[in-house]
Amino acid sequence: MIKANSISAYPDERFNEELEADNVLQLQLDYSIVRAAYEEVEAIVSADYFEGVKECENTGIGLRSFCPGWNGDLRWISSVNETAFAFFDRYFDKLGVVEKTKAIIGDCGDLIMYSGFFVVRSHTKEPYYHFDFSPEVGLNAFTLMTPVTPIGDAGNLLYHDAYEEERVYKYACGTAACFGGGFYHSTEPFESSEPYVFLCFTFGVNDLEHWDAIADAAAEQSPIYRHPTRGIVKSGIV
Ligand SMILES: [Fe+2]
């Protein structure tokens, strides 16, 4: 029998033995490159809480800060112009995300960055559990999160393992966690005097077969993102 969703370029599932959960990867990254990305835009990303757009005077990188709520002061700080998009794209390449991902899940086709952004927050009151990508996306798209600032004992990642038990994954500088389809997670409640900062990317396959299931999450954080076939486009978010 042919499954309705049997078009996957990448597998639907991969068990992570360390986290005992499906569809979550850990990549080792060069932390000095993560810091370098942050330092290029530090004046904006480290600014006191704000919503709206700021532009780096010397580089022209335009970033937009948006707070989606989610039980705390979470901000997504993402691209509003092509200069900013190119900035994230450059660091996505420098960090070798595609090569490192393929080293784990195999090479079943091209992977591209859809968007880049920083996540900044200093507190969250209650868990907000969600999927970034629905289970049918499988290993065809991911959200990558890697800390820029050290993360304390709280404020790490809550997730459901393969046995539906709640567990905690501790973030570490120089390690990225990549959440694929059906990975159910939340930020662990915390409060910190210094905001926690993460560098993040969404990335995945560059074919349209999977795009309907990927599109909303890939475009959710950023006013502009890379479409698999149309290049850099506006998401409709202002
Ligand atoms: Fe998430």
Which characteristics define this entry?
238 residues, alpha+beta, Jelly Rolls, eight-stranded antiparallel β-sheet, binds fe (ii) ion, four-stranded antiparallel β-sheet
Compute the number of structural domains.
Answer: 1
Strand sequence of the main sheet, in spatial order? 3-12-9-14-7-6-5-4
The profile of the biggest β sheet is:
8 strands, antiparallel
CATH topology, what is it called? Jelly Rolls
Order of helices and strands: EEEHHEEEHHEEEEEEEEHEE
Describe the overall structure:
The radius of gyration is 17 Å and the shape is globular. The chain is built from 5 helices and 16 strands. The protein has one domain: Jelly Rolls, CATH 2.60.120.620. With 238 residues, it is of the alpha+beta class. The chain binds fe (ii) ion. The site of fe (ii) ion (FE2) has 4 residues, from loops.
